[in-house]
Amino acid sequence: MKEIHDTPGRTAMSDAAERQEIQIPEGMEQRLSALVDRLEAEEQEARKRRHNRRTLSNASRWAAGLAVAAVTAGLAFIVLAPRGGGHVIEVNDPEEARIQTERALNLLATTLNKGVKGMEKAEKETSVFTERIRGLR
Fold it and tell me: What is the pLDDT, as a whole number, of residue 8?
């Protein structure tokens, strides 16, 4: 065996001699290959999860934006839409004032209920959309 002196007091063996002395345990190559494959699969899965989170986040933003637009459009319609009988009623009788107040409140409640139903429908559609996106993972 040939020895090479590279520093004082230290002896280095040639590359061929070093390779001959190293014993690789049986099955090590297969285990390392399996480890590399598993790590690559985990990295791909992590990339998919990051992508799905971005997609879901974007979908949630769109859904929220659409919901806000729907509410804004509904409120604008309520405020700006011309109505028949939208004039001021002057009432001296307390009973008639109560009746007119109940009519106004019923109209308001009906309009608000329509808006709430629309929001519930939008929320339901958003949750269905979100579940579909989650199913793509």
Answer: 54
